Amino acid sequence: MEHRISTRVRDIAPSATVSVDTKTKALLKEGRPVINMSVGEPDFDTPVATAYAGIRAIVEGNTRYTATTGTLELRQAIARKLMTENGLQYAPEQIVVSSGAKHSLFNIFLAICDPGDEVILPAPYWVSYPEQIRLAGATPVVVDCSEAAGFKLTPQQLEQAITPRTKAVLLNSPSNPTGAVYHREELVALGHVLERHDVFVVTDEIYEKLVYDVEHLSIAALVPELMPRTIVVNGFSKAFAMTGWRLGYMAGPTDVVKAVASLQSHATGNPSSISQAAGVVALATYEDRMVRMFRQRRDVLVSALQAMDGVTCALPEGAFYVFPNVSAHFGKRLGEQAIPNAVAFCEALLEDELVAAVPGDAFGAPNHIRLSYATSLEQIETAIERMSRFVRKLH
After folding, report:
1. Residue among 244, 192, 238 at smallest CA distance from 216
2. How far apart (Å, rounded) are the C-alpha atoms in residues 346 and 362?
3. Domain shared by 386 and 268, yes or no
4. Are residues 214 and 117 in the same domain?
5. What is the spatial distance between Cα 188 and Cα 76, in angstroms, rounded to a whole number?
6. Based on the domain organization, do 36 and 54 belong to the same domain?
7. In this structure, what are the phi and psi dihedrals at residue 204, rounded to the nearest 5 degrees?
8. Which of 105, 230, 301, 318 is positioned for an S-S bond with 211, CB 3.0–4.6 A?
9. How many CB atoms within 10 Å of residue 45?
10. 94 near 252, Cβ under 8 Å?
11. Which phi-psi region, left, alpha or beta, contains residue 364 (left: φ > 0; alpha: ψ -120 to 50)?
């Protein structure tokens, strides 16, 4: 058999964040004191009330199939949340619960895209976006958003990127990997461009609660004319510290929701009944305990990075990542080891100082690296010492 693996799978790139995390865990297993700043996972436990809701679901026998789209109780809770917190009016029938926001995104692209379609993808972008778009048969149209523009798409860039083949534009605010947050006037300006074009708006809002001194806003709440074409994606992993529970959701137009529900019925069926029971309680008992600690960590890390020779770093307004520019060190050496790019920079940083970071190439921004501050302040301070020592060694 000449080709045992399908072309669609052979052509996709493995997740760089998962790859770095795997290497890091292997070093940790060897007993090496690695500081893992590569992974996008809160270092907090799931809140006790939410955890006990999952336990209750198991003990009380709530362990059977649910509706493919999720339990009515959870979809009603999500609809209330979208209305009260985001100003978005969706009926429970316009919501599909899935096994994580990543799953929701994959479902959406498979449901709306055909071969030859284009999806506008602002860069820097989360590593899975372009691969999911390609797996759906569409083409990601990458638009480079500069550091000077806050890593955000401008109305002029959006207008220029739209073609007759454009099926959707993807927005992610707060952003992974940059932590950038679109402000009211920026979303309104993008919305006015999109009003003139019949394309979907897929808005990934998984980090919405993790914002610092700014507010998170949904574009369709600001430009209601976009509501019939807007698909909102969110989940429980980040703000509720529920990464392992695998619970996310999408809300959108009825025809898209029906298509996603049909697809999911054949792919995975319903998400975990146990996780769904926990999700209902999570929405009702949310506390912003993590935000205060993340802000403190962010401030310490950004201040230190800005003080490092040859490193620039914008102050992120959301999520739990910083995205420093380290390109001033490209072309240098660590001993006899060349550092031509961000990939080599991260490999050397991990090998020499045992700090795990992700090269910006994976996010469409090769001059940068991503560091997660979803780890303790003590670990962050140690990582800063190690990274400072590392850049001083480069010559």
Report:
1. 238
2. 12
3. no
4. yes
5. 28
6. no
7. -90, 110
8. 318
9. 10
10. yes
11. left
Is 218 a member of any domain?
yes
Produce one character per residue of 196-209: b if its CB has 16 or more CB atoms within 10 Å, e if not: eeebbbbbbbbbbb
Per residue in 54-79, pLDDT tens? Answer: 999 999 999 999 999 999 999 999 99
Helix (H, G, I), strand (E, B) or coil at 142: strand
Which amino acid, 163? T
Residue 377, domain CATH: 3.90.1150.10
Pairing of strands 332-334, 139-144: unpaired
- The domain total for the chain is 2
Is 351 domain-assigned? yes
Say whether both 334 and 268 belong to one domain.
Answer: no
Given its phi and psi angles, is residue 116 left (phi above 0), alpha (psi -120 to 50 degrees) or beta?
left
Q: Is 156 exposed, middle or buried (0-12, 13-18, 19+ CB in 10 A)?
A: exposed
CA 63 → CA 57, 60, 263, 273, distances in Å?
Answer: 7, 8, 23, 6
Report whether the peptide linkage leading into residue 124 is cis, meaning its omega lies within 30 degrees of zero.
yes
Q: Which domain covers residue 193, as residue numbers?
A: 48-284
Question: Which of 267, 243, 332, 340 has its CA nearest to residue 46?
Answer: 243
- Domain termination site, one of 252, 284, 316: 284
- Which of 246, 263, 284 lies at the terminal end of a domain, its last residue? 284
What's this model's pTM, rounded to 2 decimal places? Answer: 0.95
